[in-house]
Amino acid sequence: MQIKPEGVQCAAIFQDIQQACSMARSKTSKKWMNEHVNDPYVKKAQLDGYRSRASYKLIEINEKDKIIRPGNVVMDLGSAPGGWSQIVAPWVGDKGRTIASDILPMDSIASVDFIQGDFTEESVFEEILKTLGDDVVDVVISDMAPNISGVNATDQFSSMYLVELALDMARNVLKPGGNFCAKVFQGVGYEEYLKDVRSSFSKVLIRKPAASRPRSREVYIVGKGFKG
């Protein structure tokens, strides 16, 4: 048996992992595309003029839990392509505000202030606060999700990291009594995260909107009554 030098062995193993991840992504992407094209909510969004099928998720949540009301100041994290901001802006009306942020670009929406960048970076966070001005935030919403690799453990870790960042932002900007809504994927770290949310909100609900694909592990955690 030929023994490869340690460095060569590591390189070979790394290449195998990369290839496995690439194959997983390819299979996941094809399956997702097939589902996406045939998804009734995708077709409905196109007919209704919504940027994303995710709009219907927030619509259903708000119908049940009334987390967003006219006159509210709402912060939308991970906002691109704008499916949530698009419906929030009319809900809050002229007396409210919608401040959206994402690493990705987002086409402008009337009455929505958009800040592009990573809000965990100090410069972007400061820009958000500058845009907010003297206003206080009534609601923080997050539909953030990582780029899917196809490797479950990696994807779960990435998704939990993002939702923890959303909760940190909520704790920094929400006014006492404010509300929070974030997409979370059930799996490793989920129960601990749920417990963490409950420590900061008077009431916590778990929602699985009809527009969320049944096989998906995603749920939405709704926190009401921020303890401040």
TrEMBL record:
<keyword id="KW-0489">Methyltransferase</keyword>
<feature type="binding site">
    <location>
        <position position="82"/>
    </location>
    <ligand>
        <name>S-adenosyl-L-methionine</name>
    </ligand>
</feature>
<dbReference type="InterPro" id="IPR029063">
    <property type="entry name" value="SAM-dependent_MTases_sf"/>
</dbReference>
<keyword id="KW-0963">Cytoplasm</keyword>
<feature type="binding site">
    <location>
        <position position="84"/>
    </location>
    <ligand>
        <name>S-adenosyl-L-methionine</name>
    </ligand>
</feature>
<comment type="similarity">
    <text>Belongs to the class I-like SAM-binding methyltransferase superfamily. RNA methyltransferase RlmE family.</text>
</comment>
<keyword id="KW-0808">Transferase</keyword>
<dbReference type="Pfam" id="PF01728">
    <property type="entry name" value="FtsJ"/>
</dbReference>
<dbReference type="InterPro" id="IPR002877">
    <property type="entry name" value="RNA_MeTrfase_FtsJ_dom"/>
</dbReference>
<feature type="domain" description="Ribosomal RNA methyltransferase FtsJ">
    <location>
        <begin position="50"/>
        <end position="226"/>
    </location>
</feature>
<feature type="binding site">
    <location>
        <position position="102"/>
    </location>
    <ligand>
        <name>S-adenosyl-L-methionine</name>
    </ligand>
</feature>
<comment type="function">
    <text>Specifically methylates the uridine in position 2552 of 23S rRNA at the 2'-O position of the ribose in the fully assembled 50S ribosomal subunit.</text>
</comment>
<dbReference type="InterPro" id="IPR015507">
    <property type="entry name" value="rRNA-MeTfrase_E"/>
</dbReference>
<dbReference type="InterPro" id="IPR050082">
    <property type="entry name" value="RNA_methyltr_RlmE"/>
</dbReference>
<keyword id="KW-0698">rRNA processing</keyword>
<protein>
    <recommendedName>
        <fullName>Ribosomal RNA large subunit methyltransferase E</fullName>
        <ecNumber>2.1.1.166</ecNumber>
    </recommendedName>
</protein>
<feature type="active site" description="Proton acceptor">
    <location>
        <position position="183"/>
    </location>
</feature>
<feature type="binding site">
    <location>
        <position position="118"/>
    </location>
    <ligand>
        <name>S-adenosyl-L-methionine</name>
    </ligand>
</feature>
<keyword id="KW-0949">S-adenosyl-L-methionine</keyword>
<feature type="binding site">
    <location>
        <position position="143"/>
    </location>
    <ligand>
        <name>S-adenosyl-L-methionine</name>
    </ligand>
</feature>
